[in-house]
Task: inverse folding
């Protein structure tokens, strides 16, 4: 713990404005100071320097205000957010602080809760909760921070009123009275469900289904060739294409994935390529065998080679193409399922491409 605090203090003290501040650098500094204040090691001097930064963003001001409040400087906190807007224009950040408009609203809610501005916080709470209740996709950063902010608001504003409802499942009725904000019930796979709100609070009901998709229906990501192009080929070591649906046992071959950013949406950061191979094929890790030069691939940020899959992470500039290869061996005779190959931006679900799964065979 002390080592982390020393590191954060050093980073906070050495921070100076530069071009990165227009990509969330000032927000990172504000959050760094917030963490120090939360640990009761506030760096008031660094906080004051950041406060005077001419181009301090609205998001950074909200976070810095939270740091001031935790440091016992409530007056400075309230002064900093005076007349600041609580609405955020829609945006999604693939890198930097991995932000979004919803994430920023959650951070504002957290600050308002800390400043005990219940009315203003309540106006943000309901639309934020409603957004999380939709089928809209949100990144892990956005979802986690939204849940955290809502939990802090609920913890700071306990209510004596109870959560009241009656539920009828397959003809059996039960009544619930709880002071909790969240109640979960196990439901049967089949049947009829009826829920009635018997209290005076607004309730949100949700049914969550889990299951395994049928074979061939695992193409979860939409294909948008206008924002991301992906082509997959299977070749012998001499570069000649091979029919990967039926391969002779003992054959060495490789999967080649070509990916291109058409340039429509700018730089793509934090891209993830997921390749899951059938159990009848063995992945030959060329790094372990010191043969990586045989199948040279484009540069990547990180690659995780496992027993049954290869996960590749990379960035992709406008109009840039990359090529990634995986060396394979058809090892075991039989019929196996080749899962869908998927490529996506981890923090923007509008950028994705996939190729559906299929059955393959290894023969004598």
Result:
């Amino acid at each position: 713990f002390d080592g982390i605090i020393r590191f954060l203090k050093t980073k906070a003290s050495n921070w100076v404005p530069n071009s990165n501040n227009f990509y969330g650098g000032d927000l990172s500094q504000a959050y760094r100071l917030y963490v120090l204040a939360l640990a009761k090691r506030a760096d008031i001097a660094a906080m004051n320097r950041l406060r005077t930064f001419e181009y301090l963003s609205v998001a950074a001001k909200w976070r810095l205000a939270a740091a001031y409040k935790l440091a016992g400087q409530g007056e400075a906190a309230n002064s900093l957010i005076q007349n600041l807007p609580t609405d955020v224009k829609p945006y999604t950040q693939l890198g930097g602080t991995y932000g979004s408009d919803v994430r920023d609203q959650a951070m504002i809610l957290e600050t308002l809760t800390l400043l005990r501005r219940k009315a203003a916080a309540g106006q943000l709470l309901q639309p934020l909760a409603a957004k999380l209740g939709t089928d809209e996709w949100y990144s892990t950063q956005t979802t986690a921070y939204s849940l955290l902010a809502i939990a802090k608001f609920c913890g700071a504003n306990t209510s004596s009123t109870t959560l009241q409802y009656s539920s009828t499942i397959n003809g059996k009725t039960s009544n619930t009275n709880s002071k909790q904000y969240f109640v979960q019930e196990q439901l049967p796979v089949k049947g009829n469900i009826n829920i009635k709100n018997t209290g005076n609070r607004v309730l949100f009901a949700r049914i969550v289904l889990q299951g395994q998709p049928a074979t061939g229906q695992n193409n979860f990501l939409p294909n948008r060739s206008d924002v991301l192009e992906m082509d997959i080929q299977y070749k012998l070591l001499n570069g000649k294409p091979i029919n990967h649906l039926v391969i002779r046992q003992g054959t060495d071959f490789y999967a080649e994935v070509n990916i291109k950013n058409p340039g429509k949406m700018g730089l793509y950061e934090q891209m993830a390529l997921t390749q899951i191979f059938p159990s009848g094929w063995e992945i030959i890790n060329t790094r372990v065998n010191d043969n990586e030069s045989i199948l040279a691939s484009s540069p990547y940020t990180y690659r995780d080679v496992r027993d049954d899959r290869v996960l590749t992470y990379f960035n992709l500039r406008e109009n840039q193409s990359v090529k990634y290869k995986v060396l394979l061996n058809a090892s075991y005779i039989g019929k196996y399922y080749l899962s869908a190959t998927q490529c996506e931006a981890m923090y923007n679900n509008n950028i994705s491409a996939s190729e559906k799964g299929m059955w393959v065979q290894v023969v004598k």
